[in-house]
Design goal:
Blueprint (H helix, E strand, L loop, with lengths): L1 E2 L2 E2 L6 H19 L3 E4 L2 E4 L10 H7 L18 E7 L6 E7 L12 E3 L1 H4 L8 H8 L9 H14 L5 H7 L10 H9 L3 H9 L12 H16 L1
Parallel strand pairs: 3-7
Antiparallel strand pairs: 1-2, 3-4, 5-6, 5-7
Helix pairs in contact: 4-7
The structure holds FE2/S2 (inorganic) cluster (FES) (2 copies).
Keywords: 2Fe-2S, Iron, Iron-sulfur, Metal-binding, Oxidoreductase
Protein name: 2Fe-2S ferredoxin-type domain-containing protein
GO molecular function: 2 iron, 2 sulfur cluster binding; iron ion binding; oxidoreductase activity
Length: 231
């Protein structure tokens, strides 16, 4: 009922009530069913009591994967970029893209495979070529934006088999840097070729998919050493 344009009471229409019921049923269904995803090859099952408003980046931080940064929390800076692989429900094809983890509802990530900066490369297991190139070109200072920059570039290399310098620029246009300046960052990424990426995969363990730690080679050498010793 309105008086002078002011709404004094509101009676929702039958269709609005039905829509609310449907939405709450869908939410209950999502909450009740188990949501599973992998992060850097490790499988996780999300607690069914997780609030629907939880975002993927919150989950990553809860799992101590703090390399994925947050600045704006609203899709504007790219600091929270990770790479996600998921099956397209229409085509059945597997897609891999960089995404803003601050915008991805956790309960919508069922079946997704997430790669974060920790899974791409680190000081213990060795760095990925994209990380190395950013450092070589002096493309990082405080480093706050760097994980997001690297993961966005990694997403481009995983969604395309080749890319031009201008495509690299366009792809990175959602990632902000407040201190280094964009020239060295873009020059670093423009220098990366599909062959560089292919070669970097060769340095990955065919069993685990992680960067090669050289342990298997050491074991082989140890065996050879034992054999030589026995001779
Ligand atoms: S935190 Fe800025 S885009 Fe996600
Ligand atoms: S290196 Fe400091 S924000 Fe980019």
């Amino acid at each position: 009922m309105t008086e002078g344009g002011i709404v004094h009471s509101f009676q929702p229409s039958a269709s609005a009530v039905n829509t609310d019921i449907q939405v709450s049923k869908i939410t209950e269904k999502i909450m009740a069913s188990s949501v599973k995803l992998t992060v850097n090859g490790q499988e996780y099952e999300v607690d069914p009591a997780t609030p629907p408003s939880t975002r993927l980046v919150d989950f990553l931080h809860e799992k101590n994967l703090s390399g994925t940064h947050v600045t704006c929390y609203q899709g504007g800076c790219g600091a929270c970029t990770v790479v996600a692989s998921f099956v397209d429900p229409d085509s059945g094809a597997k897609n891999t893209h960089s995404i803003n983890s601050c915008l991805a509802p956790l309960l919508g990530c069922n079946g997704w495979e997430i790669t974060t900066i920790e899974g791409l490369g680190n000081r213990h297991d060795g760095y990925h070529v994209i990380q190395e190139r950013l450092a070589e070109y002096s493309g990082t200072q405080c480093g706050y934006c760097s994980p997001g920059m690297v993961m966005n570039m990694y997403g481009l290399t995983q969604s395309s088999s080749s890319w031009t310098a201008s495509e690299v620029e366009q792809h990175l246009d959602g990632n902000l840097c407040r201190c280094t300046g964009y020239r060295p960052i873009l020059e670093a990424f423009k220098s990366i070729t599909a062959q560089d990426i292919e070669d970097s995969h060769l340095a990955r363990c065919p069993k685990t998919g992680q960067a090669c730690r050289g342990h298997c080679a050491k074991k082989e050498n140890a065996k050879v050493g034992q054999f030589v010793y026995l001779l």
